[in-house]
Amino acid sequence: MSRLSNENVTLARTIISRYPRKRSALIPLLHLAQEQEGWVSPEAMAHIGELVDMTSAEVLGTASFYEMFKRQPIGKYLIGVCTNISCMLVGGYELLDHVSSTLGVVVGQTTSEGLFTVEEAECQAACSDAPCLQVNYRYFGRMDPAKVDDLLDDLRHDRLEDIVPPHGTLSRVRQKIGDPRQADAALSGEARP
Amino acid sequence: MTVTNPDKIVFARMHHPDAHTLGGYLATGGYTALRKALGDMTPEQVHEEVTASNLTGRGGAGFPAGVKWGFLPPEVHPRYLVVNGDESEPGTCKDRQLLERDPHQLIEGSVLTAYAIGAENVFLYVRGEMALAQERMATALNEAYQHGAVGERIFGSDFSVDVVLHWGAGAYIVGEETALIESLEGKRGMPRIKPPYFPAAKGLYFQPTIVNNVETLSNVPWIVRHGGQAFAGLGGGRATGTRLFSLSGHVAQPGNYEVEQHVTTMRDLIYDHAYGDGIRDGNEFKMMVPGGVSAPWLFEEHLDMPLDADEATANKTMLGSGAVVVMDHTTCAVRAAWRIVRFFAHESCGKCTPCREGTTWLERILWRIENGAGRPDDLDLLLDVCDNISPGLDWPPKMTTICPLGPSAPSPIYPSINKFRDEYLTHIKEGACPHG
Amino acid sequence: MADTQQASETVIVTIDGRSVHAKPGEMVISAAERAGLYIPRFCYHPRLEPVGMCRMCIVNIDTGRGATLQPACVIPVAEGMMVDTVEAGVKKAQDGVLEFLLINHPLDCPVCDKGGECPLQDQTVAFGPGESRFVEEKRHFEKPIPISSLVDLDRERCILCDRCTRFAKDVAGDPLISFVERGNETQVLNFPDEPFSSYFSGNVVQLCPVGALTARPYRFKARPWDLEAVESTCTSCSVGCRVEVQSTQNELVRLVGIDADPVNHGWLCDKGRFGYEAVSGSARVVDPMVRAGGSLAPSSWAAALTAAADGIRSAIDTTGASSVAVIGGARLTNEDAYAWARLAKGVIGTDHVDAQLDDGLPAGLVQGLPRATIDDACSASVVVLLGPDLKEELPVLFLRLRQAAIEGGVHLVEISPAGSGLSPYAMVSLIHAPGEAGAIGQALASGSSDDVAGVAAADIATARDLLGLASGGTPADVVCVLGRPSVAEPATSVEAAVAHLAPAVGSFKVLPALRRANVMGALDAGLAPGLLPGRTSLDSGRQTFTQRWGSVPPEVGLDTAGILSAAADGRIGALVLLGADPLADAPDPELARQALTAARYVVAVDAFHTASAQEADVVLPVATIHEKDGTTTNLEGRVSTLGHKVTPLGTARPDWAVASELARRLGEDLPWIDETEIWTELESVSACHTGITLDVLSDPAWRDGVPAPIPAAGVTIAGVGELPSGAVAAASDEAAGEGDGGSRAADVGSAPLSERPSPITYSPSAGTPELPVRNGYDLRLVAGRRLYDGGTAVTNSPSLAVLAPGSTARLSRYDADRLGVVDGDRVRVRNARAAHELDVEVSGLVARGSIAIAFGQPDGVAASFIDGIVTDVTVETL
Q1: What is the pTM of this model?
Q2: N or C: where does chain C have the smaller number of CB atoms within 10 Å of the terminal CB?
Q3: ipTM here
Q4: How far is CA B331 from CA A88, B99, B335, B336, C686, in A?
Q5: CB C71 to CB B193 under 8 A?
Q6: Domain total for chain A?
């Protein structure tokens, strides 16, 4: 439970500068907090409120509206199994049952060693690869119980670290607009054709 | 079979493994439309080509893009372009493919549109749960800035625009354009009241704003390159060009397919070898979601309906987001309807009463019926609660709500009760789901 | 002509077949309501931005493209619009919404505070289904949770109308509650450990259309149908918010804001709303007390009055009438104040009379400059804030000005030693060194290329631009909110600023920001040195009042500071404290203590056992607000009625009755048998009250109060039309002879306007005393007030007493860094007079070199330091 790190505050200010109004940066900053800690703590919400001139209550109002912001610590890997119509038709619920029973947790809970949290998910936009699931929002499509077993084994043994970063990290590529180096490049004109 | 297999437009690069890189994009004609527009065309001319193409919004509402751009009040600045990449309509997965596999095409389309409408900023709102799409878009934007295709004095012209990549965080309702704008303002993604009716007049920060869908904008480079007439020459009626359909459910070959509008039928899409290749395991077709789960269901008698928005309206439904979910005879209609309604209940923003309370109530009644606790009055109750959200249960729906989410919940209910009333009654009578 | 004008200003719409004239831009729901057609609603509130969320007001609206179901609260009227509010489809939709609202609403009406006055309950009884079709389990939340120390929230009852959250964000500017979660789980909530500690939190209870938000002081106290109510005016401060005062079984239980358009828009601050608790508090004086054998002991009224009169008589006899002094009176009614003015100046013959306690402004400065109304300020192009923190001292004026700045485009220019709650909304805040507002005023008037009194030249230039004083500009019409920003700097500081600014700008009107409830009424009644009733001077009014009263004092007397000094020097024979507690309120409590000790006889006329009353020789208990009739005057000069709701505690009497009794014992009969006769006498002689008769005051059309004087241009009253002041004066002159309005003031007729002494005019002085040279290590004190303080209203209201924050040391970032301290660190603050350990608060609103410590906190820290025209202190780290 902590505020944003100094490095992330610098990044936060860069992100804020991209928008005509500070508060537009709220959702990106909540993602940044989640990337730092794996969840969004009250301290982080209050800190972000200071950065974008909102009260903590307003930050909570926004944060709690969106599914992805976890206001309690969760596992390193968030497994979201889609059960919406396209997946349900081809075994989404059976897949969810398999994941939760294999991990020995009820849907919504985290395994005791803190590695996995299981969620029932709404449509993940991978309907043509149904049934599908996401681990930290990385897709695994056309799944079946055997593939789930392999996947869990790979995750447990850190074999997918290149594909699946810990929970909280979404894009591992940052847009460079507003980045000082980008500005330098623009000034020198070297990036221009 | 009337598959015309035209030159693919938005999916033209899908066979190219490196299309998502700047190199791959440039090698396949990328950014030539933008150079052409900035070099040879006025913003008005770009706008005119898009109007001439009759390109319609591909996100669900199907409004002509050129007409929408025309709603911008002249001389009011700053104005914004917001790209709606919050694809979340169940059954729909086409925009994600465009974002992941051809991000530069969207950037080029966005910059062209910003040029046409005079936008100072583009905000590219990508759904939060699409990590790969975000990485591909961020990489592509960094490349595009380096290439001079975005930013200050694009390709040496006088035109400058920034494209800011923004992520959502998991809320279906944010696909509604005013909710998207609220979300982009850092707020809870709750739709705004109407009036004002169009964000074009008062949108982001109450400035003029155009919100366009990913697929819509991805068509713009092709239209600029080939002319609006070339686009309008494909398809028929008011349904010009091609559009993407996400085909899922009980078909042998689920996938995203680009088809020529109007001349292709629903039956083609489901049964043609180039597309769905028929029902899996040789099963029988039972029903389908024709355009995302917000669309009222269609049945066997509708299979020959051309893929044309006006035809869908005539059949009291819509092609919406282009998501076709096919259900075979093993599917329980009550369970399928319940799962869709549960989605709407879960995704209701909670702002207006009929949606917040009504969708939840409908879900609980359907759950009872599916799980053997249905009561004889339940079908009348279901229809009456639906009617209190969407009076008259007609299409396009009348609404007691602020936005169309609430009135979408009845979409699976009343068509399925009309068609499979006996199946519902069996659940109630036997106290169990006949499909086990 | 009139018809043409009306046609151009109205939109004609058809509602249920009736042709309705609506205002352009008006929402259908309000046009219908004015036409007598009530469309049910829950989220709509005329003072909040419409959100169209509850959908209860759905009606059929046809603007030429076919009828569609639309919420009447968000659709503006349009010419030719057809509205149907009763058609079957409309009824079904509305019934559907009502059913949706009820499916998760608990069936706890019998134990709900709102039961009996609940719109949801009323709608349900009138139109709801007899039986629920909802067989599922209702939504559950933990039953009432406190969202602040004053307000409880029951989320099960909440219908998510957004009224409380809209109020908090849009009106109060305290978005400390928000919708949290989503969809069916949506709830209103504060952030964990950050309560809804808004000064305006009680308004959300009043706004809540169900019983979700309840006031902790009122919970389970009464059922609405047992309440008795009377309209009144809040006297927590001088804004004069209109209120309904409610009681049950002779006990005050609730105050509800009334929507007075020119004043409070229905809003109240929490101090005003909950301060009624003090009325029945244990600190009330219930019987007269007379000092006997060194201590105060209960006495009969006759004995106490005689003792008090003897004390005053003895002073007059031994050292002359000018050895009698009266301080206080700002908490009295207008009638009480007039009676005491007449007693002091006409009967006793002293002019050492001051309603202010050395913490306000010279009476002439606030009475003798052109006066602005709140509406004037809210429609001015520029408002200069030259006074206290309005959020702390005049909270509802803060709300009005905040709204005017945000929505009305009014430019705020703040000149202050420590910023305020309005600083975030000001175009520019000139935070100057304590006591040096005059230099800022001069720089604004004349320009400056240098920094002045710690304010950057660039900020002064910005302010000059806004005021139209930069070269090429047109001087702006300015409303100046004028008061005393800090009791640790002299009143000459702001007076000098006015002296420079007033002649420089286009026009200059003053909205006085003196906080005590009826300070303006007391000054209007003559409770100030050199003044007589009607804002006239001793000299101008001498002839008239000698005729009326028999005599007036020969020369201008002392103000409170002078009286206290004279008393301390042994020159005051009898000191009357008229609801005044100088030990707590005077900037220099040490001087006050010496004064009370050295004054030969001290009479305290008070409702409360204050610290000063404890030192008196006789204490005469008086009735408080809500216990008596009368009128009060707000900071605009608006006269409004007070409601008498409960009987006075013990044997307490109104202040005017005490004055009458004392006068009789001093040998003069004052001719009144009730307060209405006093008012009639005041109206008959005061130029600024001309026309404000008892009839006018009791006319429902003047429910919001009557500005005194009635503006020259006439005032437009909703439903009555324009009432030109000339007509009022003439009518008044004519009627006065007949003793209309219940007047029995037989000994005085109403003076024709020409014979009424004219109000004073005032020329502010630019002169300021030389301030001591600053020592580079010391910090100069700013002592403004906080809403919750050590005053009688707060300390005697249990719900509010706990909210007084106590003293802290507010420092600029610069000085905090220099000292190496951060928020929450403890420092020692000391000067020659006192030393205290305080918590540090770093503030962007405090100037470098200044330290802000709130005045009047129960711990008395700020007052203990004050030792001169400005006060310097040293801050040491621990």
Answers
A1: 0.95
A2: N
A3: 0.96
A4: 10, 32, 8, 7, 89
A5: yes
A6: 2
